Amino acid sequence: MWSEDVQTLAVAELRELQLQRLQALVALVYDRVPFYRDRLDEAGVAPTEVTSLDVLAKLPLTSKYDMREVFPFGLFASPQADIVEVHMSSGTTGKPVVGAYTRGDLEIWGEVMARTLDAGGVTSDDIVQVAYGYGLFTGGLGGHYGGTTLGAMTLPMSSGNTFRQLNTMTDFGTSALLCTPSYALFIAEYAREQGLDVAAGPLRMGFFGAEPWSEEMRADIEAKLGIKAYDIYGLTELIGPGVAAECTEQNGLHVFEDHFYPEIIDSETGEVLPAGQVGELVLTTLTRTGTPVLRYRTRDITYLIDEPCACGRSSRRIHRLMGRNDDMLIIRGVNVFPQQVEEVLLRVEGVEPYYQIVVDREGVLDTLEVEVEMAEALFSDEVKVILALERKIEHELKLALGIAAVVKLVNPKTIERSEGKAKRIVDRRTVTAGA
Amino acid sequence: MILKQVSVFLESRKGKLAPVIRHLGERGINLRALMLAETDRFGILRFIPDDAEAALAAVHELGNTARISEVIGIEVDDRPGGLADILAIFDDSEVSVQYLYAELASGGGQALLVLKLDPIERAQELLAAAGLPQS
Question: In angstroms, what is the C-alpha Rg of chain A?
């Protein structure tokens, strides 16, 4: 097991290590990050008062919106000269969230991603194909650092160009694949069309994350590619992939607790919930110094599993994600906010601000349909005029979202009006919680 | 002659057409000619009612998007080549046919042809020059 000593640390020792690191973290952000100092002062907690892990519950929570407000450098806890790499969450209507890495942070990232791959059985003898996007997105480079840290031969393919992915996989004898689960299925279907039997080849493991997926989808991927498919978890705000990952037991994702401290809270009250109770996952970086994060509200819904695992890792696990509690959609691995759709629609003259986003899954790929009301100002007695309008909106949506959407015009007043939070999203994808 | 046509937007979904037609009947509106244009995403119902304003109001009562537009109506003899003769009037002009439909003769040997012509003013001049009645 990679870093076996720390991954199998006795629970009491792990808690002691976490406390020491939490104390150092709070002292660091209080000293270096005005944003956190103000919030800690507001909460009335001094760094010296962090005498047990229970004190964590008194520390302020951090949201994505908080992080956007201090874009781009407001959360840096290290001098800019010490920052060697930056990643960003995919753009939304607001500003993106910036994650900055010192050299030490990159080592941590490589370490936790090496653990991720090792947990599924990757060794330095393996050939790792990274088909997550490389760039500001954390998937590609995160997977890359994991592969190289582990000493595996790492292929920086990035996403797309499926023909080449398959050729490379065949030519090199790739044994581990990293990509989104939907792309894994896409690769499988493409291989079948090309008459390639990937399942008969050397590919043995897949590490899939960055979008919600189900046990059913896992079974499908495993059957079609002839592999073991592992669920991995992470987010740009924390570090990228490498926050938690499944072991070969495939029964919950081990949180790499010496680097990331997990809590589950009640989304409404903020109260910390015990293991086994479903709520929102909150994470704290214990070791990062570029952009450390205190109690980040992930909006991901899951629960903690605080039972020994047959694999021997002493860390707690999170159950496969059960949903999200905000309005962000992840469609084909891309973050989509209803506000982005709204912005596009409202740029088109005559469009009323009533719309509904319908997400579904056809075969293996997510589909995005935007229902727009046919206002009098848009209407024409000529079919071609309306078709041109639909194409124009679809084009604008593609530019803004980065993924294709189908526009469906509906009768006026058929989309539900609301004084409060409008129901903008109908998500028909069935992502079940699994067993 | 210029006719007032009512067009109604219809979602591409079963059960969207019949209520409109029924409601027009309930409001005492008679339809002289009608046509349903459909795509895989939506439909447009176009018709020539005896009272366009009343018809528009009736459609709006149902909450559908609708509008009145001007089209040209031509009475043609119900015989082979009748339509071809009309279209020939525009052969060498800039006038183009956006769409057309017809009310088939209900006795009397004449059919009502409904044309969306663009530009409509030029179309009218050509029709007048060809000796077709303007009213």
Answer: 23
